[in-house]
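Researcher: Here's the sequence for the chain we discussed earlier.
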Amino acid sequence: MQPVNEFASGKVLLINKPLNWTSFDAVRKIRNLIKIPKVGHAGTLDPLASGLLIICTGKFTKKINEYMGMEKEYTGTITLGATTPSFDLETEPENFKDISLLTEEKLLTATHQFIGNILQMPPQFSAIKKDGKRLYESARQGIEVKVEPRPVTISTFEITKIEMPLVHFRVVCSTGTYIRSLANDFGAALGVGGYLSSLCRTRIGEFALDNAVTIETFEESVKNSRNSQ
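Model: Thanks. This is the structure I predict for it:
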């Protein structure tokens, strides 16, 4: 790890964001550790998702938009047979349906319609702003806001394991893709509903989760750098 004062000249940190942390929680923690104000992340991960978070420091914060535009890869699970208002486990499952007639062939066939350039409806529980207010703020008040579908590209939607009602998947997609929306739309296409029950971001462009460190490991390395100065 570089000495703490070198973070101001610009570093790209690959962090394995833990569950139940917001992306800003990770930024705030690192900012407090390295003692410089210019720290930012290159693409939000929801609190209920884990995995790769790119954090830029110092002069490298200018590169954030470049990294945000890169292709993303995710793995996770979709639970079939119910929906949630948030499309994930932030809200309680409802609208339960029988899944006994689903077959592996039906699941695999249903993925095909989501591969390529598609229009995707963002979740109501998202950070998109409409009239100066974030959608999730309205959603938590029970207010539905009209939004337009957005063009995204999904180059891979692969089912890796089936443990009904859980379906394990791997997705490679463009920036701006909501995996929660994909889970909801996949369940709707099967006629039984579905929601995202776990998610891990494994890659952003050429940056891989395998090369990321935990918050705890990063904190320890900063302390060691301070002690050696």
